[in-house]
Design goal:
The complex is a heterodimer of chains A (282) and B (212). In chain A, 40% of the residues lie in helices and 15% in strands. Chain A contains 10 helices and 8 strands. Chain A is of the alpha/beta class and 282 residues long. The C terminus of chain A is likely disordered. In chain A, helix 4 packs parallel to helix 5 and helix 9 runs antiparallel to helix 10. Chain A has an 8-stranded parallel β-sheet, sandwiched between helices. In chain A, strand 5, helix 6 and strand 6 form a beta-alpha-beta unit. Chain B is an all-alpha fold and 212 residues long. Chain B folds into 2 domains: 97 residues; 70 residues, no CATH class. Chain B contains 13 helices and no strands. Classes of the chains: A alpha/beta (282), B mainly alpha (212). Chains A and B meet through helix 2, helix 3 and helix 4 of A and helix 3, helix 6 and helix 10 of B. Bound molecules: zinc ion. The site of zinc ion has 6 residues of chain A, from loops. Zinc ion binds next to loops of chain A.
Chain lengths: 282, 212
Amino acid sequence: MRIFDPHIHMTSRTTDDYQAMYDAGVRALVEPSFWLGQPRTSPASFFDYFDALLGWEPFRASQYGIAHHCTLALNPKEANDPRCTPVLDALPRYLVKDSVVAVGEIGYDSMTPAEDHALAAQLQLAADHGLPALVHTPHRDKLAGLHRTIDVIRESNLPPEFVLLDHLNETTVKAATDSGCWAGFSIYPDTKMDEDRMVTILRNHGTEKILVNSAADWGKSDPLKTRKVADAMLKAGCPEDDVDQVLWRNPVAFYGQSGRLHLDTPAPDALHEGNSILRGGE
Amino acid sequence: MLRSRKELDAELDGAARAWLDEALAEAAHAATEDVTAEASPYASPPWELRYAAAGRHCGPAHADSVRSLLLIEARAPLSSVTRLYEQGTAAERRAVLLTLHRLALDSTALPLVEDALRANDTRLVAAAVGPYAAAHLDPHAWRHAVLKCLFTGVPLTAVARLDERARGDAELARMLSDFAAERTAAGRDVPADLRTALTLTEIAPAAPTEES
Ligand SMILES: [Zn+2]
């Protein structure tokens, strides 16, 4: 089974996670830039983070046989902090990088005017660079937030098929798919969405333009949720081809619109003995 | 291996060749221009944007060569080289490191090599120990670079002028022997490359010697 996790924050995960993901069938992933849990106080710390997503993290992934791409943006939460908003001016030089396959995560957190501005500006940046956009839907006031998000996308120069609306659930899936955007579902332990509810959604809505991710990060989360959804689909009698479509072909098709996906996954590196990562640093 | 313009022309298709022609023309133009005031701290000259996009237009296998040609054609000054390195992906940084010895930088770009040698990304470490490091790294830093290669599994064939610089280097020999002893104590293999380097240190230095 081949799996593409279209949304996972590997910076917060260990090499054991990489190994377990590889063993579960994960061969490619996209790491969106996001909020780190601790507020950043200057654009420079964003740049270091972006550089890590373009340098160190793909290197770590490659040692476990996983292709790593990223999406870059000013996230909705920090779009409200005037110390961070100059990141918007610097994004053009990052969006030309080879492994950047979308602008993201963008969207709404608390639906403020600053978030309106950052969302519209970054949808335009995506259009200017021929990139898709990964749009996060808010955790609070989700349905209203989704409607407002879709309105802003309609007014933008980015066509809906270049947009992935993420963190959806039963209450938001219809509006999302009606908009013509791709629909993403983050599967978490305990809260929000689980694998059995995901199977039901796939039953009702079909497998077209639907993506499933673990959204694993520094919070309670599980980087193997993609595989668990695949197993739940098979157990519920879904054909293997549907599993491959949702967990591989759909993310490839969505991010492939960037023209920058490289999936010829390197075999886990010949560096084992003496390797500084495997040994836990120098 | 970096390819020459001629070799690239033979391997690239028409569209990629045309893109490369334009990119090199922009770089050559930048070489003649007085690059002083910039509009924004984030603005970059057009050829530097080409530098980022090289792999997409000429193929990932040719990205190093194309980026290297752009740097040479632009006669990239220290300010450009530093910006491209600091703002670059790992692949963009590697191309800077591989080209330093072909630019008129003397030893001014050493901080970039030192940065790469602090990295744990073996692609950067391997690119950092090329001809530029051989020419400019002081003995202490150079010995640590060799040790780092052994530590992180970078083959010593990546180290430019290894035989020349290692010859008769008693301090390097001591470091290598200590490292071998540590490995043996831990019940781990001693890298074959370490023995090779140790043998090189045992060759008497060519007379007269001068540590560069
Ligand atoms: Zn996320």
